Amino acid sequence: MAPSGMITVYNYKLLPALASLLETQSVTESADNLNVTQSAMSKTLKHIRDTFHDPILVREGNTYILTRRGIQLKQQLPDLLQQLDALYLPQAFVLAHSQRQFSLSYSAFVSPTMIPQLCKKIATLAPQASINCTLWQNQSLDNLAKQPFDLVATTALSVPDNLHGKKIIDDNYVVVCCHTQSITQQTMTIEHYTSAKHILVNGIVDPRREVDSALSQQDKTRDVFAIVPDFEMAFATLQHTPAIATVPLNIAAQYAEQYQLNLFLLPFHLPPHSYYLLWHSKHVHDPEHQWFRKLCFDYLKEDLVHRQIQGEELLTH
């Protein structure tokens, strides 16, 4: 017995040999079954006896019989070995029986119409499952392992090494204003852009930096009139003010008809930005997660490509 305070480490590799010895009650037959020598099986039996502090098999004439402990082990061991073998089987996944609560966190570029369609699909294919959708508020992707999200759909300049993901699509920024404004020319010039009042969306940090950096290279700045919580409020504000906003093309296309927006190309260069679907490496081999991320990716891809085509058709050249 191990001294007090020490952890006993058992040799589970002995169990298959023990199971054969209990079944055959013969060292010779067990050696044949396991394709080892009789000498090796005899040594294994000695290790088993030492481990269980019991002879397990005792000789009776030309045969062996089981001790009381051996009889108990013969009853217990088959189920135990079956459970151990089951640990190595691929994880079973029956979609219709899944009771998982999936979680998706997404930034403002995801269309409000996509989430209901995603929920409808889950309700049809996995009726016992559920989904929790939350807005991604520019949290750090480095800490995704500690956050309760299966997937994050967001823009990213770089992806941390511990994350996996797929790029959904690249998008560009455009300028938008309301039809009722006096901007009627076909081209947005840098003079028009810098002389106008601007509406920004709170929390959309990276494009703000990129725009200001591009303007500063031309020794120019912009006049920020209002900062609002989300894109939809920005477009509603455009209807009531002589202002413009710089937004992703797919977002502009999504709300163009509702808020009567004019779309213009930027009068300076900004690099495209990329939308990603990301997940932590701990989810890579999870069958339920594999199904969920494919479902989300397909819906996001279809929705974004459709709106990007719409936006390009709406652009005023």
Automatic annotation (TrEMBL):
Record keywords, A-Z: DNA-binding, Transcription, Transcription regulation
Superkingdom to which the source organism belongs: Bacteria
Domain HTH lysR-type: 10-67
Alphabetized PANTHER family for the sequence: HTH-TYPE TRANSCRIPTIONAL REGULATOR LEUO-RELATED, TRANSCRIPTIONAL REGULATORY PROTEIN
Name this polypeptide is given: Probable transcription regulator protein
First and last residue of the signal peptide: none
UniProt GO molecular function: DNA binding; DNA-binding transcription factor activity
InterPro entries according to UniProt: LysR-type_TF, LysR_HTH_N, LysR_subst-bd, WH-like_DNA-bd_sf, WH_DNA-bd_sf, YidZ_PBP2
CDD domains membership: PBP2_Nitroaromatics_like (cd08417)
Family the entry assigns: Belongs to the LysR transcriptional regulatory family.
